[in-house]
Amino acid sequence: MSVIDKQERSRIAATLPARVRLLPDGGRLWLIGVSAAVCIAFAVMSDAPWWLSAVAFLALSLTIFVTSVPSSDSRHRADFSANNLRRDLDHRSALLIAALPDPCVVVNRRGVVVMHNEQAASAIVGLRMGEPLSFVLRVPAVTEALRLVLAGGRSPAVHFGERVPIERSFEAFVEPIHVNPSSAGSIPDYVLIILHDETKRQRLETMRVDFIANASHELRTPLASLLGFIETLQGPARNDTPARDRFLGIMRQQALRMSRLIDDLLSLSHIELNAHVRPQAVIDVSSVVAQTVDALSPLANDNQSRLQLTCEGAPFAIRAERDEIYRVFENLIENAIKYGGDGQTVRIIIDREPAQDGFAAAVRVSVVDQGPGIAPEHLPRLTERFYRVDTQTSRAKGGTGLGLAIVKHILARHRARLTINSTLAEGSTFCVRFDEVFQGDASCHPIVKEGS
């Protein structure tokens, strides 16, 4: 009998009348035997007729039987009390599981989910009570650990990753639950699976390694340039005023390049750190794009370019972090101005895209330039860190090689999609698609804004 069964029996017995507290079968037989011996001794030692002893024996046996077996009403009360106790225990267990900060799932010997908390429902898509855990958590390492524990063994912590809908890392602890502590080491009654989210820790470690590698690689060139000019100014050009002024100007440009590079690296690290947390604020993306166009109009003027914003059907509500979305379109529009050719028009178009190819209807923002275009072999790698189609041109225009990498990571956090289409000698189109929170007012007038 398990510990819980013993506790239930003791608690139920304490609430019932004395006549209902059951004697074991062996105890009843022992009392009946003693009664028979007493009746036989009474018949032998007295002159009473034998039938009188038999009647006394039957009366004693009936009394023992009646007083040791509960009535149907008493049994009903006992069953009712036991059910209440089980419900009370289940309720307490559910409260304990719900209070744990990590995703927790309890399965029975058949691997069927019998209990879980809200964190588990959020971490494991499709998790349901009464269904096998293997239906929704298809991780071979976790399945093997569960099989091992259900067979009476022990399993070490299991590390695994999920790539859909976003990349996450977990450490799973699979532990047996024995209702009776004395049965430890045997087949468990239940198994507890705890999933500890390792995403943030692993991202920090990856960011640390990437930051050191990227910074050392990209900072080496401007630092070498600065050291060379400093040595020149300390030596042959010490008293050469024109050369000193020219060198100082170049040194300032290299210092500004290093400053931009460090700012972009820090921004990228911050974005990656929060990549698994989807923004919940609702903003109008058309207002953010309009603000970006206003801010970049002076740069367009310097390049003799025009910015044309077309927005039909505003507002366009999306779940996003405003500053990060501003950074996305600042990078895309700035690139179109710099690399789209002087005297050209950069068009920014905001509209709605109907559902197609399995995707729901979306808000679409397109940045279209009339530049020289990008060769097809470069398109798949444009969003890689420090990848440049033309290194000399990019550095001459102040590029760090991180702009599109930042765009990619911000859009991944927002569950948005970026597509790039380009034709040589015709131009490029960078298109961003967001899930719309609700439909805008169709009666809104189209917005056409030009900056020149």
From TrEMBL:
Gene Ontology BP term (one): cellular response to phosphate starvation
Native source species: Candidatus Raskinella chloraquaticus
Protein name, entry field: histidine kinase
Catalysed reactions, semicolon-separated: ATP + protein L-histidine = ADP + protein N-phospho-L-histidine
Record domain Histidine kinase: where: 214-438
Chief localisation class: membrane
Enzyme class: transferase
EC number assigned by the record: 2.7.13.3
